[in-house]
Design a protein that fits this description.
Structural class: mainly alpha
Largest sheet: 3 strands, parallel
Number of helices: 10
Number of strands: 3
Shape: elongated
Distance between the termini: 20 Å
Helix content: 55-70%
Strand order of the largest sheet: 1-2-3
Length: about 200
């Protein structure tokens, strides 16, 4: 499941080149991935994170809710600790970056088919960072998203129906939790970690 046809075609060629593997379906959206996974019940689902209609994390959660035995491997360009954490929380068995060598990708697919979890060292290190960091509350993430759009405390308060003082309190908490000295740095850190994403 990937919204880029060339990526799907490339992966398909690599997988179909293996005597013990076959591609049973391809999806361009998260919703399509959900439908096809439930229809075909493949041994392993390869899932990107950023897709239209339903993102990869939501698609993984939806697949696993309806089919708990599903084995999902994330294959993405996103290496933020929050992205990794959310995907694994949703039920992914493995998390790979798209620059993963072919032999490693195939080994991870085979391991996932056996129900084994696989995290490359750099992904595991990012996950450990996330687990040791203080998590932002849902409200703090909402405030952070509006900060990323350049909104003032007053504008954020108006949009979220909270007082300006309450917004300031949330902003101070966000700065502290992200180890940021100002709003710009907080947004930069949040984008790098995958806590928030800029919508195209």
């Amino acid at each position: 499941a990937d919204d880029h046809p060339i990526v799907r075609e490339g992966l398909s060629a690599v997988i179909c080149d293996q005597p013990d593997m076959a591609v049973v379906a391809q999806a361009a959206t998260g919703a399509e991935a959900l439908a096809l996974a439930l229809e075909h019940r493949p041994d392993v689902v390869l899932m990107d994170l950023r897709m239209p209609e339903l993102n990869g994390v939501a698609a993984i959660g939806a697949i696993r809710a309806r089919w708990p035995e599903a084995r999902v491997v994330v294959l993405t360009t996103y290496d933020g600790d929050e992205d990794i954490y959310r995907a694994l929380q949703a039920g992914a068995l493995a998390y790979l970056l798209k620059d993963t060598p072919r032999a490693e990708l195939l080994e991870v697919i085979r391991a996932a088919a056996r129900g084994q979890r696989r995290l490359p060292p750099e992904v595991a290190a990012r996950l450990m960072e996330r687990l040791s960091a203080q998590a932002l509350t849902e409200r703090e993430v909402e405030v952070l998203c509006l900060m990323a759009r350049g909104k003032s405390n007053k504008a954020i308060g108006a949009e979220l129906f909270i007082g300006e003082g309450t917004v300031k309190f949330h902003v101070n908490n966000i700065l502290g939790k992200l180890g940021a000295s100002d709003r710009t740095q907080a947004v930069t850190v949040a984008l790098q970690r995958g806590i928030i994403h800029l919508e195209p």
